[in-house]
Automatic annotation (TrEMBL):
<dbReference type="InterPro" id="IPR042092">
    <property type="entry name" value="PsdUridine_s_RsuA/RluB/E/F_cat"/>
</dbReference>
<protein>
    <recommendedName>
        <fullName>Pseudouridine synthase</fullName>
        <ecNumber>5.4.99.-</ecNumber>
    </recommendedName>
</protein>
<feature type="domain" description="RNA-binding S4">
    <location>
        <begin position="3"/>
        <end position="61"/>
    </location>
</feature>
<dbReference type="InterPro" id="IPR050343">
    <property type="entry name" value="RsuA_PseudoU_synthase"/>
</dbReference>
<dbReference type="InterPro" id="IPR020094">
    <property type="entry name" value="TruA/RsuA/RluB/E/F_N"/>
</dbReference>
<dbReference type="InterPro" id="IPR020103">
    <property type="entry name" value="PsdUridine_synth_cat_dom_sf"/>
</dbReference>
<dbReference type="InterPro" id="IPR002942">
    <property type="entry name" value="S4_RNA-bd"/>
</dbReference>
<comment type="similarity">
    <text>Belongs to the pseudouridine synthase RsuA family.</text>
</comment>
<dbReference type="InterPro" id="IPR018496">
    <property type="entry name" value="PsdUridine_synth_RsuA/RluB_CS"/>
</dbReference>
<keyword id="KW-0694">RNA-binding</keyword>
<keyword id="KW-0413">Isomerase</keyword>
<dbReference type="Pfam" id="PF01479">
    <property type="entry name" value="S4"/>
</dbReference>
<dbReference type="InterPro" id="IPR006145">
    <property type="entry name" value="PsdUridine_synth_RsuA/RluA"/>
</dbReference>
<dbReference type="Pfam" id="PF00849">
    <property type="entry name" value="PseudoU_synth_2"/>
</dbReference>
<dbReference type="InterPro" id="IPR036986">
    <property type="entry name" value="S4_RNA-bd_sf"/>
</dbReference>
<dbReference type="InterPro" id="IPR000748">
    <property type="entry name" value="PsdUridine_synth_RsuA/RluB/E/F"/>
</dbReference>
Length: 244
């Protein structure tokens, strides 16, 4: 049975489907010795190589969470000295689900399960991410109302969302979208700059008990709960991810 090349690579645990697309676009993937392209299909018996090396044999899935500190970059590029992979130092190959800006902090998941990545990232599945945000200057009710109703950024308008003011320049926001630097861009469009941003929840998982800079594996109960929430989620990529 044929399968798409990016799915074949992600299901090996080598990287996410999006990262697989980048490997393909960068001409780093071959099928049976021939350069692959986006949209290539893999048949049983095909030999797929990335950078001339075979894909790893699929290992047991790993799910862990990190309370990311500022200064750590959500990339698997080991040339970046601040990369999240070296920071955690996990013994198996893993990759982040979504991203947090280098200057942002808080909860992020990492895994070797390419299948779960797409289900969590796809905004159409409406999986919640909750943040606490501080701006450089105080804001009023007009700012809160505009954030709730949607802000025009990147040539489109953000989806309506929950926003609650918690101080003169502090608010709580819950997103189901994940556009690149979404919260920062929304604030900038309304004349404010983000001075601190912390993600405190993804779906049913919170930062409770996880100190800044520390990571831990999911408990069996957490894995079971996440799988139940993802049961009816689509894996189709709609171009949005779990950004901020």
């Amino acid at each position: 049975m044929e399968t798409s090349l990016n799915k074949y690579i992600s299901e090996s645990g080598f990287c996410s489907r999006r990262e697989a697309d980048r490997y393909i676009e960068d001409a780093r993937v071959t099928i049976n010795g021939e350069l692959a392209w986006k949209g290539s299909r893999v048949k049983p018996g095909d030999k797929v190589l990335v950078d001339g090396e075979p894909l790893p044999k699929r290992k047991a899935p790993v799910y862990l969470m990190l309370n990311k500190p500022k200064g750590v970059t959500c990339t698997t590029d080991l040339k970046d000295r601040s990369n999240i992979i070296d920071y955690i130092g996990y013994k198996q190959r893993i990759f982040p689900i979504g991203r947090l800006d280098k200057l942002s902090e808080g909860l992020i998941f990492l895994t070797n399960d390419g299948d779960i990545v797409n289900k969590i990232l796809r905004s159409g599945n409406n999986h919640e991410k909750e943040y606490i945000v501080t701006t450089d200057e105080p804001f009023g009710l007009d700012f809160v109302k505009a954030m709730r109703e949607g802000v025009r950024i990147q040539g489109g308008k953000t989806k309506p969302c929950f926003v609650k003011q918690e101080g003169p320049n502090r608010f709580r926001i819950i997103l189901t979208q994940g556009l690149n630097r979404q919260i920062r861009r929304m604030c900038e469009a309304l004349g404010h700059r983000v001075s601190s941003l912390k993600r405190i929840r993804i779906m049913n998982i919170t930062l409770a008990g996880l100190a800044p800079g520390k990571w831990r594996l999911f408990t069996p109960a957490e894995i079971e709960a996440i799988q139940a929430m993802l049961k009816d989620s689509s894996k189709t990529d709609d171009g949005e991810g779990m950004g901020e």
